[in-house]
Design a protein that fits this description.
The protein is α+β, with helices and mostly antiparallel strands and about 180 residues long. It has a single domain, classed as Cyclic phosphodiesterase (Cyclic Phosphodiesterase, Chain: A, Alpha-Beta Complex), CATH 3.90.1140.10. Strands 1, 2, 3, 8 and 9 form a five-stranded antiparallel sheet that branches. Keywords: Ligase. GO terms for molecular function: ligase activity. This is 2'-5' RNA ligase. It comes from Paeniglutamicibacter kerguelensis.
Length: about 180
C-alpha cells in the first residue's frame, strides 16, 4: 500500500481504501486459534485475529461500501459454523486452514451478496470459506499444522460480521460490527 493508512492511488488518481468483511471467532475459541496461528504461522500470524474472510478488496467510496455491507447484514440471519479438520491450498497457494464444515452455504451466500454492488470485483479463485492457520511459512510448519490439527473440531454461532479497514498504523482495524438481521453492536 502506498500511504500507511491503507489508501493508494488507483487509475485516474482516485484513492482507494482497503476493506475487509469477516466473521470473527468468539472467545474462548479465539484464544486457542490464536495460539495455533502463533505456533504454526509465527508471531505475525498471531497478530491478526482468527477470522473467516467473507470479502476483501478496496473501495473508492467507503460510505457506499459500508452502506452496502450494512444492508447485506440486515438481510442475513444468524447461523452456525463448525470448523473441522484441515485443508490446504497448496500447491496453488501456501496456506493451511481449518475447514468450514457447517455454515459453508451461509458464508457463501453472504460472500455473494457482498460482491453485488460497490464491492464487486473479479476473483482469481472460487470463494472457499476457511480459517487460515498457517500462511507463507516453511513447508515443515505447514505439514505439521495440517497433521496436528486434522482432528480438531469446534463450532460457534455467527450473529454478526465485522467491517474492517486499515488504520493510521497500517493495521487492520474493526470499523463496525454489524448484527446479522439488524442493529449495529
Amino acid at each position: 500500500m502506498a500511504s500507511g493508512a491503507g489508501e493508494e492511488t488507483g487509475t485516474g488518481g482516485v484513492e482507494s481504501t482497503a476493506l475487509g468483511v469477516v466473521i470473527e471467532v468468539p472467545s474462548p475459541l479465539r484464544e486457542s486459534l490464536r495460539a495455533w496461528r502463533c505456533t504454526y504461522g509465527g508471531e505475525a500470524a498471531a497478530r491478526v485475529e482468527p477470522h473467516i474472510t467473507l470479502v476483501s478488496g478496496s473501495t473508492t467510496d467507503w460510505d457506499a461500501a459500508a452502506a452496502h455491507v450494512r444492508a447485506v447484514a440486515a438481510l442475513a440471519g444468524p447461523f452456525r459454523v463448525c470448523l473441522q479438520g484441515t485443508g490446504t491450498f497448496r500447491p496453488v497457494a501456501p496456506v493451511v486452514f481449518l475447514n468450514v464444515r457447517e455454515g459453508t452455504e451461509a458464508c457463501t451466500a453472504l460472500h455473494d451478496s457482498l460482491l453485488r454492488g460497490p464491492l464487486g470485483h473479479d476473483l482469481s479463485h472460487a470463494y472457499h470459506p476457511h480459517l487460515t492457520i498457517a500462511h507463507e511459512v516453511a513447508d515443515a510448519l505447514m505439514d505439521s499444522a495440517q497433521e496436528d490439527l486434522r482432528d480438531e473440531s469446534m463450532g460457534f454461532t455467527v450473529s454478526s460480521i465485522g467491517l474492517f479497514g486499515i488504520d493510521e498504523a497500517g493495521q487492520w482495524s474493526l470499523r463496525e460490527e454489524l448484527e446479522l438481521g439488524g442493529a449495529e453492536k
